Amino acid sequence: IIATMSAVVNLILVYILSGVRAENVFPKVDLPCPSPEDIAPCTCTVSSIGQSLTLVCNDVAGDEELEQVFHATFPYPYFSKLLLFGNQNIHRIKNETFQNVTFETMEIHSTTLEFIESGAFKQMSSSLKELKLYMNQLSDDFPFYSLEKLEILEVLDLGFNQITIFPVLEIPSIKEIVMSHNLVGGINPDTFSHFPKLEEVVFNNNPIKTLPTEMFNNHTKLTYINFWEIGLTELKAGTFDLSTDTLSKLGLAYNNISHVEPGTFKGVSKFSLVYMENNNLTALDEDVYGEMVADDYVQILLSNSPLKCDTELIQTARVPAFR
Fold first, then answer.
1. Higher-pLDDT residue of 83, 272
2. How far apart are CA 222 and CA 199, in angstroms?
3. 2-316: which CATH topology?
4. Closest by CA position to 222, among listed 234, 208, 240
5. pLDDT tens digit string along 131-190?
6. 229-266 confidence digits (pLDDT tens)
7. What are phi and psi of 37, to 5 degrees?
8. Which of 72, 156, 165 minimizes the C-alpha distance to 121?
9. How confident is the model at residue 26 (pLDDT cuts 50, 70, 90)?
């Protein structure tokens, strides 16, 4: 046995050294889809290299038919994606809907989905990376706390729903949160505290009105923050006191901001693009913006604001810091 294993290892080394691709030495076998008639009207497709499965269920007649699909025999129940778009007959996902089938990405959008039971994703605790449930009819019944059991969840997209509260959660793996176009009425100072890998925060078009200070103090990986059109009137010191130089875009446009305290943008520097268009700013205080524009690569977009130009600050800035 040892001699045989040694021979196999030597053969692999010969192939590697000769430049032969590994897949030509050990061809990959296509993963098996369920029988088409058993999962109809859903369809299963295999990726071009045969290493991932996608299930598309756009045409199911309703909740019961979707559940029935997963009672079929799945020879390989580990799918890459579930796609369900534009269906006006889906209203509820139950704990048992998906049976023992798991997904890495679930994307359900433009449907009439209203309710998801708290155990609907329980079998996906170690597989689900992206949960995209946008443009549905989800509300505050959404089982937020069940997400804490998803060990590798990186993307949560609940945009364009009817959710009014985003609770404080502990999801250490999360990188991207999208809650745009909901009814979220406020953000807790600790809302993002337990997301150490957080890179993108998108909460535009919610009636938030005020932002807590120091909510991003301990984050070191942020690249994109979007608070467009959330009814802001002022920004307080420490709001964007970031512990990172990775931020590339900060969206604050289409608000009613008329006052910004010094220290608001303390952590915004290096290659940042700050969107401040369509606000009510009448002046640019050097105590607020001076440190930002001293950096060659920061740009602040201020169009459609009733500004009285501060020529001294503009001369201090390296054009085109202000636009």
1. 83
2. 4
3. 3.80.10
4. 240
5. 999 999 999 999 999 999 999 999 999 999 999 999 999 999 999 999 999 999 999 999
6. 999 999 999 999 888 888 999 999 999 999 999 999 88
7. -70, -25
8. 156
9. very low
Strand partners, 81: 54, 105
The one-letter amino acid at 86: G
User: What is the pTM assigned to this prediction?
Assistant: 0.87
Residue ranges with strand state E in the chain: 43-46, 53-56, 78-85, 92-93, 102-109, 115-116, 130-132, 155-157, 176-178, 200-202, 224-226, 234-235, 249-251, 259-260, 273-275, 299-301
Contact 157, 183 (CB under 8 A): no
Residue 313 carries which DSSP code? H
SS (H, E, C) 41-110: CCEEEECCCCCCEEEECCCCCCHHHHHHHCCCCCCCCEEEEEEEECCCCCCEECCCCCCCCEEEEEEEEC
Terminal alpha carbon distance of the chain: 72
| Most distant pair of Cα atoms in the chain: their distance | 84
- Give the domain ranges of the chain: 2-316
Alpha-carbon span 95 to 154, nearest angstrom: 22
Nearest to 225 by CA among 210, 209, 246, 256: 246
